[in-house]
Amino acid sequence: MFTASLEGLASLGRQGPRALAALVLIGIAFPPLGRLVRPWLAEAVFLLLVLSFLQLDVARLRAHLRRPGLILAATAWTALGVPLIFHALAGLAGLREKDPGLFLGLMLQGLASPMMAAPSLAALMGLDATLVLITLVTGTVLLPFVAPVLTQLLLGEALAVSPTALGTRLGAILTGSVLLALVLRRLIGVAAIERHRDAVNGVNILVLLVFVAAVMGDVAVMAWADPIVFAGMTVLAFAVFAALLLGTALLFRWAGRIDALSLGIMASQRNMGLMVAAVGGALPSTTWLYFSLCQFPIYLSPLLLRPLIKARRLPER
Q: 303 near 122, Cβ under 8 Å?
């Protein structure tokens, strides 16, 4: 029974891009599932963090630390540059006054660290997953300290949660996930985790199903209620994703095509779920809609971006 379960999880984990795309369809097609699992959104985010830290390759992590210049530049860009640019552009568009809910959604997207699933998605596309991982880790470690300061400076009273409470919750979620991952690594063993990596990825997909269903359960209802707003926000979600990916790739093209695209993938996949978990899900409806629609480009990216990567538009190092 146990062996069969492992093989079933491993088979699911090997589905890669197709499984991620299927999650989006399932989340939209079965709204009752979304309502059922939504109370578990924060727990799903926590488990996704645990699973990512569980598969951390310490040796490759140390190897990338020998290139501190690239790591520091990428960390500064994703932790400081992205939210500041988001705020500047939102300010130019007057979104704080015209559409406070969308303004909050964009700012939470900018303030968020990269998704913990970004290394796996980068690997699916043949990019440098380790570079993504180390930059993601450094940016995530900074998040509980940087996010409260930037929240106070950039959002003011737009967020219902105080900056101090936000930083405390982020710190608790991240610290708890790291500690649990370390305990599991000790109990299971690094060799066993590596041997059953596909099965771990299968568990990751199941947890992602809970997350995606929770955030996308009402998407069909929202689309039917106001199709024009829905279409506009969908276009915006894809445009922001593409701008972050291509802008980051161009900014770091000096590091080589593979590294530049890897960092582009990392920067474009913002962990808005972590921010939503930290604020307890207390978001305006427009913010929630934008958050839901941002999942489309993230989970469809392995299928959508393969032609871009194969095109070799950036020069090799």
A: no
Residue 238 tokens, joined = 């894809």
Among candidate residues 288, 264, 260, 289, the one with its CA nearest the CA of residue 276: 288
Q: How many other CB atoms sit within 10 Å of the CB of residue 263?
A: 29
Global pTM exceeds 0.85 = no
pLDDT above 90 for 285: no
Buried/exposed code over 134-164 (b: 16+ C-beta within 10 A; e: otherwise)? bbbbbbbbbbbebbbebbeebbeebbebebe
Express each pLDDT in 195-227 by its tens digit.
877 787 778 788 878 877 877 777 777 778 788
Counted domains in the chain: 1
Question: Is 301 domain-assigned?
Answer: yes
What does the pLDDT read at residue 312? 52
Contact in structure between 272 and 293 (CB atoms under 8 Å): no
Are 136 and 266 contacting, i.e. CB atoms less than 8 angstroms apart?
yes
**pLDDT tens digits, residue range 94-104?**
888 888 888 88
3-class state of residue 270 by DSSP: strand
Which residues touch 162 (CB under 8 Å, ≥6 apart)? none
Cα end-to-end distance, the chain, whole Å: 49
Q: What is the CATH number of the domain that holds 276?
A: 1.20.1530.20
